Amino acid sequence: MIVFDDIHKSFNNSPVLRGVSFRVAKASVHFVMGMSGAGKSVTIKSVIGLIRPDRGRILVDGREVTGLDEADLVEVRAQCQYIFQHATLFDHLTVLENVAMPVAKRMKVSTAIAQARARAVLESVHADDILERFPPELGKGSQKRVAIARALALEPRVMLYDEPTTGLDPVAARRIDALIRETSHRHGLTSMVVSHDLTSVRGTADHVSFLHEGRIRYDGSADGLFATSDEVLATFMHPRG
Ligand SMILES: Nc1ncnc2c1ncn2[C@@H]1O[C@H](COP(=O)(O)OP(=O)(O)OP(=O)(O)O)[C@@H](O)[C@H]1O
Ligand SMILES: [Mg+2]
């Protein structure tokens, strides 16, 4: 479980988060939504210390992660894998090598063992047909799939996704949604997903927290969010041209 307890964060005296509190249940797929600039990325980055909150606490499985030094954050970042919006793969390594390299390095195993593990994980994300390809030859959806495999291969407890479907075509986006659900429920992984994608949230989220003006405006099911009578939320959920 991840607990956000009264998180505050300002940049240049301008408050972005003004007392954000919510809980992410273990093994759930938890969406964080909100308008552009609402502080979604700031919230998710705070879990692994890429952003340091000014006030408040974040606990991951009971351990406080706010205020840890860089050495202790290395461990937190191993347990909580962050998937950047743009895939950050090495273009000059094959898909298999991209996934195997961090396994060999972090888990201190031989290349052969790392590659066997990488192969198994790539198979589980349905990417076993592209093992010998190079990232620039792949579509964005496949690149994202490989980035997810690379993170999963490190056996995290938490996956943090920042806009995983932005920039993908609808077919690729739905495949990523399915993958997020599958991995979360199959491996008991806790997944936090920052997203604007209304189709994603409807089909994928177990729970949604909606950020507005620095606080949580809604915390509940996706269905409840779509049915909301709150004007701010309704404008977001049912945009009119
Ligand atoms: N490192 C930083 N330094 C200064 N300001 C920052 C920093 N990171 C975020 N901000 C500001 O905090 C606010 C919230 O940013 P954030 O990236 O969390 O928004 P978001 O909800 O993820 O938006 P989007 O949907 O556009 O990605 C923005 O006004 C942004 O400019
Ligand atoms: Mg963002």
Description:
39% of the residues lie in helices and 25% in strands. It has helices spanning 40-46, 70-79, 95-107, 111-124, 140-152, 170-187, 198-204, 222-226, 231-237; strands spanning 2-11, 14-24, 29-34, 55-60, 63-64, 80-83, 158-162, 190-194, 207-212, 215-220. It is built from nine helices and ten strands. Strand 9 and strand 10 form a beta hairpin. Helix 5 (140-152) runs parallel beside helix 6 and helix 6 packs parallel to helix 7 (198-204). It is globular, with a radius of gyration of 18 Å. It is α/β, with parallel strands linked by helices and 241 residues long. It has a six-stranded mixed beta sheet with strand order 6-7-8-3-9-10, sandwiched between helices. The site of magnesium ion has 2 residues, from helix 1.
